[in-house]
Amino acid sequence: MNPWLVLVLGLILLTIGARVMVAGGVALALRLGLTPLVVGLTIMAYGTSTPELVVSAGASLRGLSSLAVGNIVGSNVCNIALILGLCAMLRPLSVNRQVVRREVPVLIVISILTPALLWDRSLDRIDGAILLLLVIGYTAFLVRDARRQGDHSNGAGMRVSRSVWQSIALVVAGLVFLLFGADLMVDSAVELARSWGWNELLIGLTIVAIGTSLPELALSLISTLNGETDVAVGNVVGSCTFNLLGILGVTGLLSPGELPDLRTTDLVTLALVPLALWPLVRNDGKITRGEGIFLFTAYAGYTAWLVMTS
Questions:
Q1: CB atoms inside a 10 Å sphere around CB 307
Q2: Which CATH number fits the domain that encloses residue 271?
Q3: 215, 281, 221, 265: which is closest to 242 by C-alpha?
Q4: Which of 54, 207, 211, 212 has the most other CB atoms within 10 Å of its CB?
Q5: pLDDT for residue 157
Q6: What average pLDDT does range 50-59 have in this prediction?
Q7: How many domains does the structure of the chain reveal?
C-alpha cells in the first residue's frame, strides 16, 4: 500500500483513539470520584498526548530511538509555535494568571533540564527513571493542590453519562485504535524517510510530530473559537510537560541508547521555544495576535530549515 495512505490511515486511527480513550478516561475518573478540575489537570491534559506516547514507545521497542525522541522534540515545538500561534491568530489568548505563573515556569525549567540530559547524545535508563519520577511527583502535586484549593470549575461538559463498564470499554477501544494507528504510522514514516533520504530523527521532528499533535491542535482550536482560551493554552502546556517527562521517560526505559542524529540546534530549539510563552507571565496572561503571527512564522521557518539542511 502507498506509504502516504498508510500514514493518513494511521493518523486517523490515532486521532479517533485519543478522543475515545480520553472520553472513557474522563467518565471513569468522574465515576471514581475525581473532581472536574483534577480530571482537567491530569487525564484531559495528558490524554491528548497519548498518540505521542504510543508512537514513541512503539518506535523505541523497534530500536528507532531517534524517531521516538524526534517525535517528542518536534511535538513540543509544534504545540507551542504552530498550535498556539494559530490559536492566537484566531483570537488573542488570555489565561488565568494564577495558573500561568506556575505551569509556564515549570515547563520552561523542564525544557532546559531535558536538553541537559540529552547533551551527551544518549538516553539511558537513569535518564528515563529521573523523568518518570518527576512526572509522577508533579502530577501528584497538581492533584493535591487542586483538592486543597477546592474545585472552582463550573463542571461544563463534565457530567457523567456512562457506566463504569462503558467507560472501561471506551478506554480499551481507544487503546486498540492507538496501538494500530501507531504501528501504521511508524511503518509508513520509516518507509518515507528512507525513500527521501531523510534520517529517522528528521521524520520524527516533522511529519510524525505534526501528525501526533493533531489531538492538541483540534482541542485547542475548538476551545479558542469557543472563547475558552484557558483550555487551549492549558492543553498545550500540560501536553508539553507530559511529553518531556512522561513520554521521554518511557522511551528511556524501553530503549536506552545513543542518539547520534540529534543535533545541538535541536536541543537548543527545545530549550528556547518554551520561552515564547513568557509573555503569558509578563503581560497579564495574554498572547496577542502579533505574537501569534510571530510564532506561526517561526515554526514555518524552522520546518523549512530542517528540510533544507537534511
A1: 12
A2: 1.20.1420.30
A3: 215
A4: 212
A5: 47
A6: 85
A7: 1
